[in-house]
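COURSE: Structural Biology Practicum
ASSIGNMENT: Worksheet 4, Part C
STUDENT ID: 0417
INSTRUCTIONS: Below are two proteins. For each, the amino acid sequence is given first, followed by its structure token string. Answer the questions at the end about the second protein only.

PROTEIN I
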Amino acid sequence: MNPLPPSLSDQTLRQVRRAWRKYGILWMGAVLVGLVAVLYAWLMDVGFGMFRSMQQSHFWLPLFITPAVGALCVWATRRYFPGAEGSGIPQVIATLEEDTTRRGQSLLSIKLLLGKIGVSFIGILGGFTIGREGPTVQVGAALMFNLRRLYPRASAALERRLILAGAAAGLSAAFNTPLAGIVFAIEELTRSFEHRASGVVITVIIFAGAVALGLNGNYTYFGTIHINSALTDMLALAVLVTGILTGIAGGFFCWLLLNTKRWIPARLQHLRSNRPIAFGALCGLAVALIGIIAGGATFGSGYVEAKGLLEGHQQLSVFYPFLKMASMVSSYLPGIPGGIFAPSLSIGAGFGNLLHQVFGNTSLEMLIALAMVGYLAAVTQSPITAFVIVMEMINGHALVISLMATALIASRVSRFFAPPLYDALSERYRVACAEAMPANAEIEQMKLKEVGEVKEVKELNNEQNSDSELGSGTQK
């Protein structure tokens, strides 16, 4: 058999390399995001299960364990993983806005990814009110961002597309809500949608979601709710009241996080600034005390409590949403890695349970769904993302209009109290990165700015010629 002519062999090799850059890297990254999201979810479930077993056996143990875990998490985060604190979504927003390469190297490194997962696991071992969904967004963005090394030349436009796709896929895999991943990328992360990024985002979401479905099966996050149309006579009033109540509560929560100097006593402010590890222990003690007062209901993300309410086998006090909110504030203040998506949904479920005392003839499941979307929309001030997430996680297509209206009302009410939470928090990372920039790097950046835009336009034109559909970002 005669070997292929050298020209044909070289052409085939070039086609294989081009296909790898155009499709293979994205597919590999998407599969990796799905695998890590499933592993992270399993790890957090195991961690909270261990804490719950301990807490149910000895209700007083959190008084010692939770402060110790709080101190350990703060020490580890500040010492080894600065940038891993909180949910991770503000870090992604800050990286997408400008200076993507340098900020990505600081906020989306593999080291930070491992720290995010590891320290949040330790945090849930202590019963802190944190979720995994927000961190999964940062983890997905970090995984995709670091794949830029596999491209011959990585432009800023390519890096932004990879980060955007990874973040959207992370949210989609965490909640099993593919539509919400797309909407989240548009509404929360970029406030716009580049045409060439759409194919990348959808491709990564599909593959990451397929991996998560293959490992977890086809499921909805909170199951399926069934609404009896005969019980919806008061629906319009319920939507209005729920939107206003959750908007006030969510807006007040945002105000607390963004205005700590206006309500935390001076001594505690000093402790937070100068002895953050001790402050972390003190916050852990607050979480433990609140949890004991609530009979253990406020520990963890709140997923179990919200799902139990929806399924009708969980009984919670009318004070639950307020205690859960206090626990979430105490968990967020010291900077422990962990998200606020799932706790916000749990708080919303608690408000739905509270409203059922007023609207007794209205379906409890419907009120819980409305309150969940309202509180989440109030906290994020992203009403479209909020109602799509809740609609997909409860399979609640029959409530689409009601969910949309509640989300819109709550987000508008929330704006009277505070600006969008994630945008405000991302500003801190933009300032921190700017202050950390060496003087010579800043001068160099100014020199390159004039030619950078022209160069990027040329690179994008080359990309469009070679990769018109997905846009791999390789340069010819």
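PROTEIN II
(use this one for the questions)
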Amino acid sequence: MAELLRELKQTRLQKIWIPHQCERLQQRRGSSVPQFTNSPTMIILVGLPARGKTYISKKLTRYLNWIGVPTKVFNVGQYRREVVQTYKSYEFFRPDNQEAMTIRKQCAINALKDVNIYLTQEEGQVAVFDATNTTRERRSMILQFAKERGYKAFFIESICDDPDIIAENIMQVKLSSPDYKDCDREKVVEDFLQRIECYQMNYEPLHNDLDSSLSYIKIFNVGSRYLVNRVQDHIQSRAVYYLMNIHVTPRSIYLSRHGESELNLLGRIGGDSGLSPRGKQFAHALGNFVKSQQISDLKVWTSHMKRTIQTAEALGVPYEQWKALNEIDAGVCEEMTYEEIQEHFPEEFALRDQDKYRYRYPKGESYEDLVQRLEPVIMELERQENVLVICHQAVMRCLLAYFLDKSAGNEH
């Protein structure tokens, strides 16, 4: 053991292993559900149809789950489809259709009941209430529901008066809606525009003066302008930060591991070695692939480590280095094989198997730490258009978990 410690002290990272202590390891693992708030939060969408509310709901839910905040979307339209299984026409949404209005209100109430179950019995922290919520009366009902149960309420209103954006949304999303299955394209557009007019009749946007006590963000024309009011806490500020970074422009994001490194050949984790001969072949092949795709204005990102930089060099294009993209820090286990870790640190090896996501290498990082480190990368990716990210195995797992909508703990 003394020889091993001397070797560890001589590594580039100059890290010293501290012997196993149960309490220290328990603290390092953390709790099973990170608590970012003292009380649950309801995020309530507001806006006319075809304003991107469901898109916003899904994106925000994916992000919050990825950073470790248990979040779930409750789409009132799905509740309505379960009750009224055959959609006929926009007439169902007329404000003077009393029978339909009763059904729609009951669907909202049923969704709120499920929100309560999620936040009280299923360890949920954030519930996203995805509906139009275009009247002050409906929003008051939701606010009263939240207040009685001690939930915080945060509104997201999507306002769009650009006819081109609205038409694009209808064509991309509503044509595939279950409401219009097997319907003629022109009839779908005509019916949906009339549905919007039904909501427009009674639409009461959030008011700067009347609603000044509420917490909300208004998003104008899919991000051309924002108005933020009374952000209460960390969760709401994270949501605002995220929403101000996303866009709807179609683009391609490519994720690639670096070419095989010299330490990969030896089965050793971490380190900062260069590419092996086979790794250089991979880098050359990646360059040929990128050229064949003819991607306009492609940006290339790498970590600060040799193996990603050498992979990018083979592309013959400018690239940007991100320290945040560096491989997970294995601490005192850097440049060891898994067999060596199991032999010298058997308890650490077993603990990693029990909870790979929250396990933190001694003097190193956990996947949970890595997610926090990668958050600025995700924010910048959301702002960008076409990007190729050349990174490492653990980093790619975390990035893929975000884009594939995997919650914390499902990265590997």
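ANSWER KEY EXCERPT:
Q1: The radius of gyration is 25 Å.
Q2: Residues 67 and 371 are 7 Å apart (CA to CA).
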